[in-house]
Write a structure and sequence with these properties.
Keywords: ATP-binding, Cell membrane, Endoplasmic reticulum, Endosome, Lipid transport, Magnesium, Membrane, Metal-binding, Nucleotide-binding, Phosphoprotein, RNA-binding, Translocase, Transmembrane, Transmembrane helix, Transport
Membrane topology: Multi-pass membrane protein
Subunit structure: Component of a P4-ATPase flippase complex which consists of a catalytic alpha subunit ATP11A and an accessory beta subunit TMEM30A.
Subcellular location: Cell membrane; Early endosome; Endoplasmic reticulum membrane; Membrane
Structural class: alpha+beta
Number of strands: 41
Largest sheet: 13 strands, mixed
GO molecular function, one term: ATP hydrolysis activity
Oligomer: single chain
Shape: elongated
Low-confidence stretches: 1-21, 440-458, 487-501, 741-752, 1118-1189
Distance between the termini: 75 Å
Strand content: 15-25%
Number of domains: 5
Length: about 1200
């Protein structure tokens, strides 16, 4: 463990720094400051080793064992194993110890292998070479030997070995370009700046002569936040202090681009780097299936204790008769007679616990773990979820929640980059009410046929012409766009101006690229940033230069950014662009009404709008601005707050110039995906930071809202007119008037029986709703809000802060139904809701990879969510539900005959089965078939699951693991076990003889019961299997063959390592009897018969929609094609009646049209909605072909 932080705290406190600021001092180049300037206090920092592994060679065994025995089932079996070692129990300790050892070993090997891979990756990183400046020379070292304060030389295309402060670069302006794709997925080039006083140091000797210290905050994981200052010591007594921010910090894992080399100093190394701090493990999420498993386990533990108590009590009741107390073959010793009866009873109770402990399926946990781990690969291998543009497929960050994908009830989605492409297209701009529309501009690519400019209402006067050009200049200057150079400066100028592909714009924001490209089409071309001067080419092909003085960066709270520039004529301007809600309140003049009207018009059309404003600054005002910003930037404490206050003072009294409109197109198949989720019974909420009109237009386009949807508004505008209390109760009466107090099902919105409602709420109103009520009279707003939401088919939350997104998800999670929630997003602002939801899905979008890194699953596009939930989620849940129920069932079948046997052996704890059978039942004989079933079973084909989303409803609300189903499986196990035991007992009671006249003994009886047991539980799984492949046949029939071969070898060979062999020749002797063969077949059939009858009756009388599909699919599989409409398949089998599965969806169809492929000929067939009885022929009409079905 690293005690450096504690050591620093103690050392500082002991030297009298009681009011220690949470910061560190770094001595550049390990050089002491000049004498008399400040006290030299060397500090200890961790080395640069990255440790992502969990274990070491020395602590693997104890740490892994500790973690595994924290699981209740493992700890329980350990106790049972210890009891078997301590007291005289009826079964060998091997019977409990070997399965436990198998489970612990398999899990340890899996975790050890994963950790070995992490060690291997860590060593590869820690041994990478780095170049360090020492004594004026470049020294090559391993990365792990880098220390805080070392000066590092990094060359182009190299990765930064630690978090570094940029001192100087090969570029004259002290800038360098960096990609942070490995950190946040942003492939665009970001600009970083060297310290102003050190950017001229271009040689090793110059850098090595530098005497300076850096004071900065202690390590914290925020990638985009850094506060510090550098003190540079020159000839003067007082050092020069310069502020340091995130623009000076080069992060470990980022890559240097388009810059020959840089010199930088290490400030955070190893596990203190921001990259390492961001890779800390997230909180563990538990699925509903796992909770059901634990509940079932408690029930079976109670059954086990009950069995042990019953047998212990009956034993002493039975032995109360003196004649039964001590049979001659089992006489008690003197020591046993002298023991207290309570001690003897407790010992017997423990012995019965050991005898019956196999009812707790310890191997189920390792099987479930293997199923989840191996099953997760089916998502990553899915070619349909591979995106050619990104070159990536779906990712699984955790396999613990696979089955939760099949239980989702609420989907919370971001809008920009998730529902939309985040691929901006410049549509128009409005200057003082005059609208300018260039032809198609899309992210830097000018489409063919787009020469010329269209202007709508473009008749500005002389003043208007000047303001128009000022607007265009503002958009060419107020941004963080970089020019990717591919030719010389002249080539760039010519290429950009003529639209050639010799250079292009790159930025971390697609909006900015679209705006700069739009200005290029309108005659003002941004050329480059050179020597801190921004160059633009105007309509007269003249290059204008503006000195960039200050950049007030964009943040999500202010929702605007500004630049301060000086023109070549010496005039000072502040240009500001941002959301209309953040610009209009700061405007004092301009044609606000006309611009506002155009902004609102564009928002209704679904366009993203920005407003542009400016103000001219005098030299004195600029001087005050510089002082304000410098004092805020140099602050080590509360720098963000002070900067925000400074920005607020600076960005005031603006003059409105105009507004822009950019379109963010819907992603491919986004509307189809949302519609499918609705049909599957899920409620979709859109949570976005966009304004209401823009978001609402997107919701209509994506079919979240339909034209028939009645929109309910819970917004600031409405709450200003009425009180929040009145608005909530009015909305509540509206939605409950028709539905009463019943929750409105989302699917009902597709029928005409219910009015479809959609709710729109904004962030400010949500904050008011979430506040606790001040008095009882105001009521509980949260409950009313939830009731309204439950009765709406879709909800749109706009103007949402990231934290509010998480609050919404948490609110729904905590509601009385406790629904399963899923959050999907693509940006850093979506991380909080992704972590809060039961299942978090990240989109590999253009806003970085923060969402994908923090999610449970990552997908390239929103459309892939449909298959992930409706197909993969459906399959995962069906498979693991069967696995869990089947494990409990087969263990009841296994151990209940042992319980019944005690009534026939005087409760003497005599085992019914041999030790080998007790040990291998769950490990070998019955484990592989269910594992394979849980990996590849497909009860319905993938195509049908995709075409009919309503099948998702059949598995909703954990329906396959409800108590009713669990009790059915348990009673089925009890019935089968009674058939095994009493069937064998009555069939062979005093009548079974072998060929040599011997009677079956107790081990033969137990082997017979065990044989029927193995065949029954294996064939039960075979009957439940719908998707057969060669590997199913191999595993199912191979498991039965393995049992037979093992039994023949176990009882047919004299094994030298066994002291006694009670099973010798038992299995062969049993098989030599004809009645035994007949009895095995008969008992297996009787055991399976009730379950088969139940399924046949339920399918005939009360079929689910899934069972209807299965029936039709089997009967007409050869006649169906991928074009067959699913409503036809949803009809009941014998009549093909044209009624829908869901009774609330009504509608009469006189004729169904089905496109199909038939022997290479495309045709169609018609089915009447009122078909005759089954005997009447039905025909497919094709070209020259008629076939009866």
């Amino acid at each position: 463990m690293d005690f450096s932080a504690l050591r620093n705290l103690i050392s500082r406190y002991c030297t009298g720094e009681e009011n220690w600021v949470d910061s560190r001092t770094v001595y550049i180049g390990q050089r002491e400051p000049p004498p008399g300037t400040e006290a030299y206090i060397p500090q200890r920092f961790p080395d640069n080793r990255i440790v992502s592994s969990k274990y070491t060679f020395w602590n693997f065994v104890p740490k892994n064992l500790f973690e595994q025995f924290r699981r209740v089932a493992n700890f329980y079996f350990l106790i049972i194993f210890l009891v078997q070692l301590i007291i005289d129990t009826p079964t060998s300790p091997v019977t409990s110890g070997l399965p436990l050892f198998f489970v612990i070993t398999v899990t340890a090997i899996k975790q050890g292998y994963e950790d070995w891979l992490r060690h291997k990756a860590d060593n590869a990183v820690n041994q990478c070479p780095v170049h360090i400046i020492q004594h004026g020379k470049v020294v090559r070292k391993q990365s792990r030997k880098l220390r805080v304060g070392d000066i590092v030389l990094v060359k182009e295309d190299e990765t930064f070995p630690s978090d570094l402060i940029l001192l100087s670069t090969s570029r004259d302006d002290g800038t360098c370009f960096v990609t942070t794709a490995s950190l946040d997925g942003e492939s665009s080039h970001k600009t970083y700046y060297a310290v102003q006083d050190t950017k001229s140091f271009n040689t090793e000797k110059e850098v090595d002569m530098l005497r300076a210290t850096i004071e900065c905050e202690q390590p914290q994981p925020d990638l985009y936040k850094f506060v510090g200052r550098i003190n540079i010591y020159q000839d003067r007594d007082e050092p020069i202090a310069r502020p340091l921010g995130s623009e000076n910090l080069l992060l470990r894992g980022a890559t240097l681009k388009n810059t020959e080399f840089v010199y930088a100093v290490a400030i955070y190394t190893g596990m203190e780097s921001k990259m390492a701090l961001n890779y800390q493990s997230k909180s563990q999420k538990r699925s509903a299936v796992e909770k059901s498993m634990n509940a079932f386990l408690v029930v079976y533990l109670c059954i086990l204790i009950s069995k042990a108590l019953i047998n212990t009590t009956l034993k002493y009741v039975w032995q109360a008769d003196p004649n039964r107390d001590e049979p001659w073959y089992n006489g008690k010793t003197d020591h046993e007679r002298q023991r207290h009866v309570m001690i003897r009873a407790f010992t017997d109770f423990l012995a019965f616990m050991v005898l019956f402990n196999y009812i707790i399926p310890v191997s189920m946990y390792v099987t479930v773990e293997m199923q989840k781990f191996l099953g997760s690969y089916f998502i990553t291998w899915d070619d349909e979820m591979f995106d050619e543009e990104l070159g990536e497929g779906a990712l699984v960050n955790t396999s613990d929640l696979n089955e939760e994908l099949g239980q989702v009830e609420y989907v919370f989605t971001d809008k920009t980059g998730t529902l939309t492409e985040n691929n901006m297209e410049f549509i128009e701009c409005c200057v003082d009410g005059h609208v300018y529309v260039p032809h198609a501009i899309c992210n830097g690519q000018i489409l063919s046929g787009s020469s010329g400019i269209d202007m709508i209402d473009s008749s500005p006067g002389p003043d208007g012409k000047e303001r128009e050009e000022l607007f265009f200049r503002a958009l060419c200057l107020c941004h963080t766009v970089q020019v990717k150079e591919e030719e010389t400066v002249d080539g760039i100028k010519r290429g950009i101006h003529q639209g050639k592909a010799t250079s292009f714009y790159i930025s971390s924001s697609p909006d900015e690229v679209a705006l700069v490209e739009g200005m290029k089409r309108l005659g003002f071309t941004y050329l480059r940033l050179k020597d801190n001067h921004m160059e633009i080419l105007n309509r007269e092909d003249e290059v204008e230069r503006f000195e960039l003085l200050e950049v007030l960066n964009f943040d999500s709270v202010r929702r605007r950014m500004s630049v301060i520039v000086r023109s070549s004529s010496g005039h000072l301007y502040l240009f500001c662009k941002g959301a209309d809600s953040s610009i209009f309140p700061r405007v004092i003049s301009g044609k606000v009404d006309r611009v506002r009207a155009r902004v609102e018009h564009n928002a209704v059309e679904g366009l993203r709008t920005l407003c542009v404003a400016y103000k001219a600054l005098s030299q004195e005002e600029y001087h005050n601005v510089c002082q304000l910003l410098d004092s805020a930037k140099l602050a080590l404490q509360d720098r963000d707050r002070k900067l925000a206050e400074a920005y607020d003072l600076i960005e005031r009294d603006l003059i409105l110039l105009g507004a822009t409109a950019v379109e963010d197109r819907l992603q491919e198949k986004a509307a189809d995906t949302i519609e499918s989720l609705h049909k599957a019974g899920m409620k979709v909420w859109v949570l976005t930071g966009d304004k209401m009109e823009t978001a609402a237009a997107t919701c209509y386009a994506s079919k979240l809202f339909r034209r028939s949807t009645q929109i309910l508004e819970l917004t600031t505008k409405r709450t200003e007119e009425q009180s929040l209390h009145d608005v909530l109760f009015e909305l509540g009466r509206t939605v409950l008037r028709q539905h009463g107090s019943l929750t409105h099902d989302a699917f009902s919105g597709l029928s005409g029986e219910f009015q479809d409602y959609g709710l729109i709420i904004d962030g400010a109103t949500l904050s008011a709703v979430m506040k606790p009520a001040q008095d009882d009279s105001s009521g509980n707003y949260k409950e009313i809000f939830l009731e309204i939401c439950r009765n709406c088919s879709a909800v749109l939350c706009c103007r949402m802060a990231p934290l509010q997104k998480a609050q919404i998800v948490k609110l729904i999670k905590a509601s009385k139904e406790h629904p399963i929630t899923l959050a999907v997003g693509d940006g850093a602002n979506d991380v909080s809701m992704i972590l809060e939801a039961h299942v978090g899905i990240g989109i590999m979008g253009k806003e970085g990879r923060q969402a994908a890194r923090n999610s449970d699953y990552a997908i390239p596009k929103f459309k892939h969510l449909k298959k992930m939930l409706l197909v993969h989620g459906h399959y995962y849940y069906i498979r693991i539900a069967e696995l869990v129920q089947y494990f409990f069932y087969k263990n009841v079948c296994f151990i209940f005959p042992q319980f019944l046997y005690q009534f026939f052996c005087g409760f003497s704890q005599q085992p019914l089965y041999d030790t080998a059978y007790l040990t291998l039942y769950n490990i070998s004989f019955t484990s592989l078939p269910i594992l394979l079933y849980s990996l590849i079973e497909q009860h319905v084909s993938m195509d049908i699951l995709k075409r009919d989303p309503s099948l998702y409803r059949d598995i909703a609300k954990n329906c396959l693991l409800r108590w009713r189903i669990f009790i059915y499986w348990t009673f089925l196990g009890l019935f089968d076990s009674m058939v095994f035991f009493f069937g064998a007992y009555f069939l062979f009671d005093n009548t079974t003889f072998t060929s040599n006249g011997q009677i079956f003994g107790n081990w033969t009886f137990g082997t017979l019961v065990f044989t029927v047991l193995v065949f029954t539980v294996t064939l039960k799984l075979a009957l439940d299997t719908h998707y057969w492949t060669w590997i199913n046949h191999f595993v199912v029939w191979g498991s039965l063959l393995f049992y037979v071969v093992f039994s023949l070898l176990w009882g047919g060979v004299i094994w030298p390592f066994l002291n006694y062999q009670r099973m010798y020749y038992v299995f062969v002797q049993m098989l030599s009897s004809g009645p035994a063969w007949l009895g095995i077949g008969l008992l297996v059939i009787i055991s399976l018969l009730p379950d088969v009858l139940k399924k046949v009756l339920c399918r005939a009388l009360w079929p689910t929609s899934t069972e209807r599909i299965q029936n039709v699919e089997k009967l007409y599989q050869s006649h169906l094609s991928e074009f067959t409409p699913l409503p036809l398949l949803n009809s009941s089998l014998p009549d093909f009646e044209a009624h829908n599965i869901n009774p609330r969806r009504s509608g009469h169809r006189s004729k169904e049209l089905m496109y199909t492929h038939w022997r290479g000929t495309t045709g169609y067939c018609t089915f009447s909605s009122t078909l005759g009885p089954p005997g009447i022929g039905r025909t497919h009409r094709l070209v020259g072909l008629e076939t009866s079905v």
